[in-house]
Amino acid sequence: MLETLLQLSLFDLLAPSPPGWGGTLLRGLASSVQIALGAFGIGLVIGTAGAWGKLYGGPVVRDLLEVYTTVVRAVPELVLILLLYYAGTDLVNRALEAFGYPPVDISGLVAGIAVLGVVQGAYSTEVIRGAIRAIPQGQIEAARAYGMAPGLLLRRITLPAMLPYAIPGLANLWLIATKDTALLAVVGFNELTLATRQAAGATKAYFTFFVAAGVLYLLLTLFSNVIIARVERWARRGMPHVGGAG
């Protein structure tokens, strides 16, 4: 029985894919990358503001941010996506109606980016907060002694100095974002996982298409690792090399 299953799986893998489905998978991959880029960018903005608020904000701001990061990190991401995707769009339209504006039809792309951006923002907040705390405090104190404004201090001192410490954590968040796009398949957004399910369901070549999707995710990860390594080398220029001999 096991030998028969292995033979069938190998046959499915080697069999040529029906025409047209390759383009469907690539379009799904493009949608996944688009969502991941948007969500990661929103997460960086939220994370930077959240980390700054946690470190330098008032008690109310710090408490609200603590609730935000704790809830998002505690609740499973699939539950958050379902909650924010359906309840969030409904709340937006209710708010618009309350102010006298007609409801809007929020596209799946915008909703998907916003939902994952909120999730990414909670994790980015903690990554960036930790990176800022790793900065030698003498640099920040010297800037304050010169009378540097908080906004200028953030742009000229804090963000450049914390970048080498933040990149490893942010790189992991980017890879998580690329995989979290697959969760949007449950709400019907046409990204790579949903496209793969549609192709496999139409052709019954489940093994072939899901292996193909896995390979596409792997290629995206390998390409991302190359870019991340270059960014990390750029951010750490002039700093002592940390790593094994070689």
From TrEMBL:
Organism the protein comes from: Nitratireductor arenosus
SUPFAM superfamilies assigned: MetI-like
Alphabetically ordered keywords of this record: Cell inner membrane, Cell membrane, Membrane, Transmembrane, Transmembrane helix, Transport
Domain ABC transmembrane type-1, first and last residues per copy: 29-228
Domain of life: Bacteria
Membrane topology: Multi-pass membrane protein
Annotated GO CC locations: ATP-binding cassette (ABC) transporter complex
Upper classification of the organism: Bacteria, Pseudomonadati, Pseudomonadota, Alphaproteobacteria, Hyphomicrobiales
Gene Ontology terms for molecular function: transmembrane transporter activity
Pfam families the UniProt entry points to: BPD_transp_1
Membrane-spanning ranges: 32-53, 65-86, 106-123, 157-177, 206-229
Protein name, per record: ABC transporter permease subunit
Intracellular or extracellular location(s): Cell inner membrane; Cell membrane
Family (UniProt): Belongs to the binding-protein-dependent transport system permease family. HisMQ subfamily.
